[in-house]
Every structure is written in C-alpha cells, then in structure tokens.
User: What shape does this take?
Amino acid sequence: METALAIVNLFNAAAPGIANLILLIRNKDGSITVAQMLNQADSTFDANIKEASDWFKTHPQAQQG
Amino acid sequence: MKRSMILFMSLVLFLQAACSDRDLQKASKSMVVLATAVGELQKDAIAANEQKLLSDQAAGEILQVCLKINAGGKQIDAVLRSVRQLDSDSRKNLIALLSPISQALDSRQLEFIAGIKDPAIKQKTDAAFILVRTTIASLQIVLASSGG
Assistant: This one.
C-alpha cells in the first residue's frame, strides 16, 4: 500500500514536468500551439466575464436583461 | 517486414494526429485576438467609468455586449478544441455560433456609442469595436474558406 502511494506521489510530482516536456516536444508540429492558443483565449474570456460580472455587481442599476 | 510496416503506419498516424490544419491555427489566433481585444475594451470602459468620463449606462451597455462576445467566444473555443481539423460540419457549427456575436455587434445594437459625451472615449470605444468586428470578420472568412 505504501509503495503504491509512493508511486502515485512520484507520478503526481513528475506529471507537470512530463506535461511540459510533451508540450516542448510537440510545440514544433503546431498542434499544441493551437491548444495553447485556445487555452489562452479561454482563460482570457473567463477573466473578461469575471471582470464584467464584478462591475455589474457594484453597478446593479446598469444591469440589463 | 510486418513489424516495420506497423511502425511506419504508427508513425504516419502519429504525425497525422499531431498536425492541425492551417485554418484551425488561424481560427485559434483569431480567438486570442478576440479575447484580448474584448478584454482591452472592457478595461477601457471600466477605467473611463471610474474617471466619470463614461456613464454607468454606457459602460453597462459596452459590458453587456462584451459578455455576449465572451460567452460566444468560449463556445467557439470549445468547438475548436474538440476538432483536429476544420471539416465542413465544424465550419457550419462555428459559423452558427458566430451569429449571435455578429448580432451583438450590429450597428443598431451599438447606437449608444453615439451618445458617449467624451470625444476621446467615444473614438476609443468605436475603434475598439471596429477591431472586434474585424476579428470576427476574419474568423468568418477563415471558416467560410474551403480549407487547406
């Protein structure tokens, strides 16, 4: 059981590094670049939505249907 | 012989899977530009509102349009993420998702810009919406093309 947990912990610790390595390897073929761009766009959309929603919370009179 | 053939086929399949078409890359770039442009537009509207250069009503109208674009953008992003190539079905699907964004950017929906009193803010808002519209138009052109 302890060995299994140790393996899981080791994998968890190594996973981000492995993911980065895969990104570095696959960056040249373009496919990950698309994924990265879409991730960037998605997180920006999320931030935009939060920013606008926060503004409406402080300006409820400006809220429309 | 059989083993090398399997290896070769695996390599071909891997390379095919790893490659994404150019239109998908162009569309993804457009999404980054769109998200960034909308983000800047929002920040400018909020900053102008804080400085009392833009009324709550006008800032609210701008942010409502931005919310529609952001929501539509996320849907488009999700579709682009799910495909490896822009085939005719995904292109049709994406064009349909662009429709509400185009409607939100319709000049009749943006008539409030004419009511912005500060000329600099008015010009800046107008220019920001032109950039957003241009990005949407470029995305529509990419999606309407035959691919390649």
Q: What stands out?
A: Chain B is about 80% helix and 0% strand.
